[in-house]
Fold:
Amino acid sequence: MCYGVATAPRGYPRGVIRIGTSGWRYPEWRDGFYRGVPQRLWLSHLASHVGTIEINSSFYRLQPPAYYRKWAAETPEGFVFAVKGPKLVTHNKRLRHVEDVLKTFTDTLALGSKQGPVIWQLPPSLRFDAALVGDFLAMLPPGRHAFEPRHESFRTDAYFDLLRAHNVAHVVSDAPTFPCIEAVTADFAYIRLHGHDELYISSYDDEQIDEWARKIHDWDRDTYVYFDNTMHGAAPRNALSLMARSTSPARR
Structure:
């Protein structure tokens, strides 16, 4: 489990808990969660069971607006997508000189009311630099944004204070290969569960699921949770298990 270094501020109303998976196009799920479901219906099938999904393809290359409109049309009323920011911003340019790329990326998003947070996943080699992070946060367009650093140097109040100043969520990430820093820095929380023991593989047991449900309950705000332990098909099972243990005033 994560170890907290910054407690969640109190005073926010209990929000909507949205739980889902990181992506949906996994051949490994074909004989399990997608058994008997044609590939063209995988998104709508998953979206009928969970309340949110992360779009991962946007990390690797810009997606045309028509794709976003298609995905939105295939999901039910009240569904929300998170969108992964392009690695051109985070990994290639490493947050520097990204104004034009940010605008181009933002202009492609065509999810309408189904637009959720944009997540910015940083490379493990990128260390915390207060000036660099502050400048990048100031450039972000309106909307909800979440920041997932993967270097231990981000475990500092200077980083948390920057996120709070811009109402950007720190991504609480559970994985065996990079730091799990538990900090809630915005009026919403964002969790990525990559597999506690084996990255992208291991399933979460009942005790671990219960612990995450307790944390979500205690944070008292809108919360987005994505299972990224996708390689052996655990993600949708774990998402449904956490949904059963979590409470929300709206559709999960």
